[in-house]
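## retry 2 of 3
previous attempt timed out at serialization; input unchanged, resubmitting
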Amino acid sequence: MIAWNIWILFLGYTVPMVVSPGPGNTVLATAGGRYGVAGSIPFWAGFEIANLVLCLAYGMGLGKVLHGHPEIQMVFKWGGTVYLLYLAWGFFRSSAISANSSGQDHARLRTGDGFLSVILNPKIHSMILVMFSQFLDSAKPLPAQVFQFAAAFLVVCMVCHFPWIYGGQLILRRFRSARALRIQGRVFGICMILVAAYVAFA
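## retry succeeded, writing output
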């Protein structure tokens, strides 16, 4: 059983890291603004599934395997940049479609999109790697600790990510005219380009 003081430290690390502005939360807010909370659930589910997968992988030793291989980190970095540009293209495309339709979205972000946006985000890899390096106790059974921390991290992510999705919906879903949707598509596309630039050059 993990001691309560470790849980306090765990929350002190994870909550600020997860809830703070960054590439992942920008994408979630964009999804909420474009599709609403209900329409963002598949993307959100993929997002959190990927977080859980990374927790289990790094907790069980993936960090040691990747140590000394910076080229793998570069693959994630540039893969994430390309994927964010792909999402930007999707938003620009939806903006063009909205100009010639009744304003209905023809393509939504899917579970796989959410999964890839996390798997290809180097910031999330680093955050989870540091989390396990700080809080795992080598004197205690590893699997039990990893599963507990992974489950707790999943809860933290769900609680901290929801306000970003809902906030995007609250601010932008009231604007549903064809013109507003065109503007949103362009703004969201620009946001994705800016996030891609951050991932590439930060």
